[in-house]
Each structure stands twice: as C-alpha cells, then as structure tokens.
Amino acid sequence: MAFAVAVTDECVRVWSRAAGEQASVREDRRYTPSLYAAAPEDVLTTLRERLAVDPKVADTGFERRFTSLRADDRDRVLRVDCERPDELRTLAREVRCVHEPDRWAPGTVRLYDVDLDPTARYCLTTGTSPVPEADLRSLSLSLPTAALADGDPTELCCDGQRLAETRPADEGAVLRALARRLAARDPDVLVLSSADLVPLLHDWADALGVDCHLGREAGYRRLAGANTYQSYGRVGHSPARYSVPGRAIVDRSNSFLWSEAGLPGLLDLVERSWLPLQALSRSSIGTVFTAIQIREARSRDVLVPWRAREPEAFKPARTLHDADRGGFTFEPDVGFHEDVVEVDFASLYPRIMCEYNLSPETVRCDCHDGDDVPGLGYSVCEDAGFVPSVLAPILDDRADLKATLAEADPDGEAHERLAARSDALKWILVTCFGYQGYRNSKFGRIECHEAINAYAREILLDAKRRLEAGGWRVLHGIVDSLWITPRVADPTPVADLTAAISEAVGIPLEHEDDFAWAAFVPQQTGRGGSLTSYVGKVADGERFKIRGLAARRRSTCDFVASAQRDLLRSLETVTATRRPSVTASVASWPDWSEAPSTPRTS
Amino acid sequence: MGRTNPTYRDFLADYEGRWRDYRRALRHEAGADFERLFERARRHADAAGYANDPDRETLVLVSMLLAHETELRRLRERVAELEREAEGDTDGGPR
Fold first, then answer.
1. Which residues fall within 8 angstroms of residue A35, CB to CB, at 6 or more apart?
2. Under an 8 A CB cutoff, do A324 and B39 touch?
3. How close B30 gets to chain A, by Cα (Å)?
4. Partners of A485 in the beta sheet?
5. Does A219 lie at the interface with B, CB-CB under 8 angstroms?
6. Sheet of strand A472-478: strand arrangement
7. Whole-prediction pTM
8. Can you give the residue ranges of the DNA-directed DNA polymerase family B multifunctional domain (chain A) (predicted)?
9. ipTM of predicted assembly, 2 dp
C-alpha cells in the first residue's frame, strides 16, 4: 500500500506507511518495464534478432495477448524488456523510425504499452497498490507569486501561516522554521502553491548550509522541464515537475483536480486509476479516464496501443449522413415565460453507454447482425462491454455519494469530503463520452460515439412526447435537459411524469429546477433563438440560473457583467407590476472610470 | 457531428445566403416578408435536422409551409373569435 512511487534508471523506490507508524521505503532493482510489438511472424522474428543486440534491451520473449478489445483470440506478440525505464520511449521510436523503415512497409509493426505513466506502469505490472493504507498527513506550503519570481523565500507560509516571525525576515531562520515543521508533522503529501518552490528552497538551504529538505531524504529530482503550449487558441504554461524522496507533491498551480476535488477526490481516483497520487494530481481528466481504462484493459489481458488504430469502418454514404449527428436540440421558444420547470437526465451519456452496452468493441461487432441502434442499423453485442464495465462502478458510486450527501450535515467535514469525491467522479463522467470521438483516444471509436448520440436523440424525443401528453408544453430542450410549462390548466404532476419516463427509458429524469420565470434569448444577430443562452429566476429564492449570456462569460468585464445582472434583477419588477419601469440606473453600477476592467475569472 | 455534411442549421444559413440576389431585387415590403419566410423555416430547424433527409431544400420548403399553416390556424381562430364577438354584439345590441 504505497503513497509515493519513484521510478529512476537505477531502481524503483516505493514508499508506504501503515497507520501510526513511520514511513518505510522498499527498493526494487530488478524491475524492467516491457513494451510489446505485434506484426507478422517472420517480421517479429527478425525484429527480435535486431533488438537482442541493443544494449537498451534487457530481454525479449514471445507472449500471447489480445491486441485489441475486439479481438476474439490472443495474438503472438514480442515482449521487449527495457534495461532503463527512461529509455523505453526511445526504444519505441527506434523501432518505428529505424528498424521498421529499414525492412518493412509503414504500419507493419504495431507497438503497445509504450506511453504509460512510469509510476502507474510499475504499480500495474507488479501489483503494487498505490492506494495509501493510512490517512495521509499533508502540509501546505505557499509563497506569493512575486516573491517566488524574485527567488525570495522569506514570505513562505506553512498551512496558511507565515513562517518568519520578523519582518524583514532572514532566509536562514525561515528554512530552519520549515525544517522544524516538517520534522514535527512528517507529512506524506506536500501541497505546494507552485512546484518551483522545490528548487528554490533547496538552493537556499544549500547556499546557507541549513539542514532543510522537503523530502524524507535529502535531494530532489526534476522530472520534466517547463514548457509553453497552445490549446484551442490559448497559450498555456506547463510548469516544471519535481519529486522529492518519500513524499507526494501536489502542485496547486498545475492541478485541475486538486482545485475541483481536493485530496479526498484525488484519493478516490487513485483507487480507480492506480495512478499514484503525485502523477494523478497533475493529470488531466482525460488522462485519468484513460488510466482507469488501461487498468480495466490489463485485467482483460488487452494491450494498450501506442498510436490508436481504429479506422472508421466502411459504410454507405446514407448511413454516414444519418450517423454524423449530435444530440437533439429544440428551437427555443424565444421570449419571456412564467412558471417554467427544468427536467434533466442525470449523466445521460455515460448512462446510455451502460444501459445499452455501448463500447468500441460492442458496436457493429462481428458476431451479431442486428438492427439495435435506432436509425443507424448498427448491431450491438450482448457481451459485457469494456466502457460500461469502466463506467458502471463510477455511476453507482456517484449515485451512492449523492444519496449520502443529501442526508449529511451540510456544514460538516464529512459533507465536504463526500462532495469532493462526488465532484471528482462527475468530471470523469463528463469526459467519457467525448473520448469516444477523440482520434487519439486509446480505446475510442467513432461508431460508438455515433450510436450514443442516436440513443440520446430518441430518449429526448420520447421524453418530449410523454411530457406533452401529460399536459405540458416544451419551451426548449438541449440534449439532456428540457424546459417545460403547463399547457393545460391541470397538467399531470412533474414527479409522476419524470418517474414514468425514468422507468421507460431506464435512465433517471430528474426535476432540476422550478423557475418563477425563464427567458430564452434571440441570437445577437436577431435571427432566431440562441440555442444555448437563457436565464431563469429560481422560484423560491433570489438565485438566477444564467447560461450563455454576457454576465456568465469569462471574456466579459465586471462592469458589463454587473450591469447585466442588475437588469435581470429589474425584470422582477416587471413580473410584479406587468409594466416596464426604471429599476436600475447607471449611477448604482460600479465606478468603472477608476479601476481598469479585468477579465472575470469565475 | 458535421464531419461529413454541414448540420442542417448551418445549411439553412448558407441556403438563405444563396438567395441574396433575389432578396436584393425585392421591393421594401416584400423584403420583410421574404425574411420572415426564413425566420419561419428556422423555427422548425429542430424537426428538419432530426428528419435529416438528404434533400434539404424540401425540408426548408416544408418548414415554411408548416409555419404558414400555423399562421392560418391562428388567423382562423382569431376570425372565429371575432365572429363570435360580432354575433354576440348583434344578438344583444339594439337593431
């Protein structure tokens, strides 16, 4: 039961700690990670001879493994053990760029198990659980950004409290105070405002000759340098990554999951993905979801492809035309509506995958020839699907967490912990569908993506039919949500209808919100309704639910956002008096002439 | 979505653009009527998108006709209402 795993070229060091005991380290010097190659028999034999003389290779051998989720039989594959973990990728690149082009056509050799996280790979291969046994002790260190940029550690805070007692402070005193805190708490997890604290503090300690190190032993390692990247038109910065012996580092500046789910959420995902805590904390949701899938694939003896190779199956143009569609979106009834109810299908897409067994290997399988997917004529295999078996426990656990949450004391510590875990799972569920259509996804397939959308369209239209029959009018609907208002004087109660629809579809339809009024707005060009912009005033309370309007967008400055919110509040008077009146004035809005407007962050 | 063909809503916007010259030659009053035609086609873009017939121009025309039918129903109801009121006035009022 480890909480920190460090893979270096010399050895793997696994740190663990039982409750009430000191942390201990175990060294594994015999570990050699393996990659796999699949190709025709004669190619593998030649490749083996070539690799056997490579000093990077420790050993080679033949094994029988599944090379895809869809495979009925295991293939004979070449296992290549790598002497040093760091050289595994180099070896893979050499096979692809040197050995293959030298003798064979491109794509002859397919490589597997190449780009796994080194620490997770160790855990999976050796059966070393990265789930901590004892409750972890954590210590948080933070330094203001300006001080960090100046390389000045004197403002260092420990658990939110400034370490130095004097101002101006002395670097040596701060480091000695830090060393005392570290010794007293002996934390397993260091939560840092930025990973750059690691070199900064160690360099100062070295320069001043103070015995202070962040790890349980002296020293630190740089795992990766900082870099700049572009994604969806935005330039981002990925900070350098460091590790220290015996402690997991969580870099708050580089951890989406920490900010969304906290330590309880992270630990929940460690258990599912077997990514050790430090690797998990800096992972994107997609990486975590992929890691959970990799773990399931390993349990099925399926290798993980390096480059996803699931080309789209041939299909008639008409099928392509039918299949290449998203979820169903109604045209909104543009305007102001009173007495509006919102109903939502909870986790619709992941539940569709589970309910209808949709997975890359079950959709258009070779063994069935049915007409299962509505409108597309794709068959779906009856064997338990790969994606559903990954998602079902997550859906069940989240439903349980939400049920427990509903009964927990909202101010208690337990509530916070449960909410964090529930949020962590929510993000996995949000991601799982998109990964079916993502071309670099390890286990995605476009036909699966299409099938999920086909079911989603049917489900929403089925719900519409039942709601209309129950005396409601559909004002708007987007993929998994519907906004309805009574069509007749005495419609069937929403609870009865949602229960009936949930029962019929097999996916819970939840009564999300009651709005005193809701407005669906036109597009800015004035032509037709905007499909995703609306505002609703929640019936009991002061809360507005705003989607897509300027006030909600990150690119809107504070002045415009607060002006728009004021205007929305003024609509209240309109509903009360039935006539427009002056209810907001520029004088009451923030003084924008002094403070420069800044992009909103929330 | 939209990998092979544009979505129906994108098609509709594009299709309206193709009528630009026609629109330009119309007189003022007819111009506004013309724009209303496409506004009404858009009102049923959800159904047309779901029907997904490869003959999208027919989908546009049927959407326009449907909106036309809705407007006729509304007017018929209004006429009936006014007639009832008028009859009421005639029955109850002095001759």
1. A79, A80, A82, A88, A91, A92, A111, A112, A113, A114
2. no
3. 18
4. A473
5. no
6. A472-478, A481-486, A335-345, A509-522, A529-538, A544-547
7. 0.87
8. 294-573
9. 0.88
